[in-house]
Specification:
It is a single chain. By secondary structure, this protein is mostly helical. The chain has a domain at 206-356. 70% of the residues lie in helices and 0% in strands. The chain has helices spanning 14-26, 30-46, 50-66, 70-86, 93-105, 118-151, 160-173, 179-186, 192-203, 211-224, 228-239, 253-264, 270-279, 281-284, 289-302, 309-322, 325-339, 347-354. The longest helix has 34 residues, at 118-151. The chain is elongated and about 75 Å long. One of its GO terms (cellular component) is cytosol.
């Protein structure tokens, strides 16, 4: 007589397993809990109970991270986002809040300071390694979340709120600060005030000569996305005297270029834009990416098409042959005005003079 094969026991509500797994975490069995989170959530997925699988993964990610199990927590966080994609969950405030809750569970641990002995240096190296791991794990999670958000209903560049989370974590926790990466995500975010605070803080600890590069990079990145409003807001925030008790806005040619550029872009003033690029070329060339950003800005604000090398070479030749006398006079007068060093000329005064 053949025996009947028993069927699988029905899955209980997710809350039952969430409580069970929380007890395993509280006992300190982090690795065992990790395997259980993955296997149990997979069973809910197989049963097409995606919402409950998400609940289990979210709970596990937060608990592991709160117990400083960064690798385990971030793995569950990434699986959580993968489940959002698989279940085609649309982007909304509720899911954003769940992502933010995971993000806030990532540890934020300041690096040890004033170390000198060999033992202390070993401690520092260990702390640096742990910080690097935290940042890489958080980045993996937030980048996946940005990609999901772009695909399922947020801005085409991804959720601005998640971009701000990523920028903040990289800035505050990275042992090797990359302000280009920080700026990349802040300008795709929705909080230029936080960006200004980060730049102010950076100015107090960076090497001499890096301040104006960081400020110019931030402004040009905003402008290359067509965001003149936040570019102006950021620059105005950085110029506020009340915020500069210790760190004055750098007085450099690059900052002067930015000061002239912003009002220029508010007008139909392509010739002046070209003059500014020519006269501040040596400052712009301090960072190779600036010219690429300015090309994008010219295309966005003035419709200047990007040219390849041959088009640019022949175009310049024909332009030299066919440029009108009026245009020549305009460029000469603008050049003289920009090069004046013995008087202070405001951007608005420059533009008014050139447009006469």
């Amino acid at each position: 007589m053949s025996r009947q094969r028993p069927g699988k026991a029905p899955l209980p509500p997710a809350e039952v397993n969430i409580e069970k797994l929380e007890n395993v975490i509280n006992e300190g069995n982090y690795y065992g809990a990790q395997q259980m989170y993955k296997s149990i959530s997979a069973r809910y997925v197989s049963a097409q109970r995606h919402s409950e699988a998400l609940d289990i993964l979210h709970s596990g990610a937060c608990l592991q991270l709160k117990n400083s199990q960064v690798t385990c927590g971030s793995e569950l966080a990434v699986i959580f986002v993968e489940m959002l994609v698989k279940a085609k969950v649309p982007y909304d405030d509720d899911v954003l809040d769940r992502i933010r809750k995971i993000y806030k569970a990532f540890p934020q641990i300041p690096l040890p300071q004033d170390l000198g002995e060999d033992d202390d240096m070993q401690q520092l190296n260990e702390a640096l390694g742990a910080a690097k791991t935290r940042v890489e794990c958080c980045l993996s999670f937030l980048k996946a979340a940005i990609k999901w958000s772009a695909e399922f209903g947020a801005h085409r560049n991804g959720s601005p709120e998640i971009h701000v989370m990523l920028a903040e974590y990289v800035y505050s926790e990275s042992p090797e600060l990359d302000m280009t990466r920080v700026s990349y995500h802040f300008v795709r975010g929705n909080n230029p005030k936080k960006f200004a605070s980060a730049l102010l803080n950076f100015m107090g600890k960076c090497y001499p000569g890096e301040e104006d590069l960081a400020i110019a990079r931030a402004i040009l990145m905003y402008l290359s996305m067509g965001n003149l409003r936040d570019a102006n807001f950021l620059f105005d925030e950085l110029k506020k005297p009340a915020q500069y008790k210790e760190h004055d806005l750098p007085q450099s040619d690059l900052i002067q270029f930015i000061n002239y550029l912003l009002p220029t872009l508010q007008r139909d003033a392509l010739p002046l834009f070209k003059v500014l690029r020519t006269n501040y070329k040596s400052s712009i060339d301090r960072e190779p990416a600036f010219n690429e950003l300015l090309d994008e800005i010219a295309e966005l604000f003035y419709g200047v098409q990007r040219r390849n090398l041959l088009q640019g070479m022949f175009g310049d030749i024909f332009q030299m042959m066919g440029r009108s006398q009026h245009e020549d006079k305009f460029i000469v007068s603008a050049t003289k005005l920009v090069q004046q060093q013995d008087i202070v000329v405001s951007p608005d005064e420059m533009i008014i003079c050139l447009m006469r």
